[in-house]
């Protein structure tokens, strides 16, 4: 795979990861009601996310409400919020920087070595964005797992389990890190530097013989 095609594939994968991370951050299905056990004790399905909680009735009606207070939220929710916001910001800057540094674009610098370094910087931003998304989703999933298996008087079919947004977040983290890694492969090769050095020194050598 050529350098330009590799950069384009990495950029598209990272862009897809950023869009998926945005969807995961907005979705309220970070955890949902568990239907494990012998009997279902309620006809209402509960979903909770970073920003709101929703109740889905068996008739199909869904009611959502934003979290009332930021300071009253659990620590893992506040931490996951912050990590997802940082991830989205890093990914946004990575999108802009990568466009400038890709070989298939005519934006910014025309020097191929400089553009490659800019593309690598965009790849690093995407990798950091993916790591933040991975940390946020994994932290939230760890808390859900702990609350599900700990000793409690709450019936098992009234507890919470993983929601679909967690899997979207894991996929987003994987795509962002994969795309960032492909962009980081745009680092200038030693052969290219040697060719540039040879072209710069060749005219002066010819003048000496004249």
TrEMBL record:
Pfam families: PMP22_Claudin. It is found in: Cell junction, Tight junction; Cell membrane. Its main location: other. Keywords: Cell junction, Cell membrane, Membrane, Tight junction, Transmembrane, Transmembrane helix. It comes from Piprites chloris (Wing-barred manakin). The chain crosses the membrane at residues 82-102, 118-142, 162-185. The keyword Membrane applies. Signal peptide: none annotated. InterPro entries: Claudin, Claudin_CS, PMP22/EMP/MP20/Claudin. Belongs to the claudin family. This is Claudin. It is a multi-pass membrane protein.
